[in-house]
Amino acid sequence: MARPDGRVPTQLRPVTINRNWLRHAEGSVLIEFGETRVLCAATVEDGVPRWRRGTGEGWVTAEYAMLPRSTDTRGARESVRGKIGGRTHEISRLIGRSLRAVVDFKAMGEHTITLDCDVLQADGGTRTAAITGAYVAMADAMRWLRKRRKLKNNPLTGSLAAVSVGVVQGQPRLDLNYLEDSVAQTDMNVVVTGGGEFVEVQGTAEGAPFDRKLLDSLLDLAVGGCEELTALQKKALAE
C-alpha cells in the first residue's frame, strides 16, 4: 500500500521552517509540510482586549485564511463575500486555543500577540502546519518583547506542534497529504506539547467507527511526528 509520494506510513513530509520571512512583523515564519505552505506572522500590541484590562495578564489570539488560489480552483476571498466561513472560524479558534496552552499570561503582562496564518498553498494539513509555524513566530515575538525589556521573564511554558494522522486503505498513516486526506476512513488532527502532553485531539470516523486499539496507534503516530517537529522548531529557533 504505497503512499502517493512514496513515504512509509510513519514518515512526515519534508518540513522546512523559514524564520523572519516578513520585514515588519515581530515574528514571522514560512512553514512547509511538503507542498502545503503557510505564512505565519506575529504582531505585538500594547494592551489587551477590554474584558482583560486591569488583570495584568496578556492575550494570544489567531486568525486563519486561505489565499484564493491556494487550492486547485479559485476560492473567493471571505472578506469580499462579507462572511467568514465556519471552517475558518473553527481553525482560527483552534490555533489560538492551542498556542494559549503554552503561555504564562501573568509573565506576559498586558500585551496582545496576534498570529495571522495565511495558507499560500494547500495540500492537506494546513491547520497543523499553521499551529507548528505559529508557535515559532510567537516565540520570536516573545523574544522581541524581551529584547525591548518589556518582559522580565519568558512567558512560554513549553513548545507546541501539531500533525495529522489517519487511516487510508486500512493503514494508519502520519501527516496526510490531500490525496490521502480526501479518501481517509479515519482522519485526526493532534496538538502536542514538547513534553508529550495533548492539547487537542480532533478525530472523525469518515465511515466505519474506530476502536480504542486503532485510536491508540494513531495517537502514538502523532506523538512521534510531533517529537520530530519539535526538534525542527528548536533547530530553527537556535539559528
Any chance you could write out the topology, listing elements then pairs?
Layout: E1 15-19, E2 27-33, E3 36-46, E4 59-66, H1 78-81, H2 86-100, H3 105-108, E5 111-121, H4 126-147, E6 160-168, E7 171-174, H5 178-181, E8 186-193, E9 198-205, H6 212-238
Parallel strand pairs: 4-5
Antiparallel strand pairs: 1-2, 2-3, 3-5, 6-7, 6-8, 8-9
Helix pairs in contact: 2-4, 4-6
Rounded to the nearest angstrom, the radius of gyration is 18 Å
How many strands appear in the DSSP assignment?
9
What series of H and E elements makes up the topology? EEEEHHHEHEEHEEH
Characterize the largest beta sheet: strand count, sense, and whether it forms a barrel: 5 strands, mixed
User: How much strand content do the residues show?
Assistant: 25-35%
Structural class by sheet pairing and helices: alpha+beta
Quick check: average pLDDT? 95
- Helix segment tally: 6
End-to-end distance: 38 Å
Helix content: 25-40%
Runs in which pLDDT lies below 50 for 5 or more consecutive residues are: none
How would you write the strand order of the largest sheet? 1-2-3-5-4
What overall geometry do the principal axes of the alpha carbons give? globular
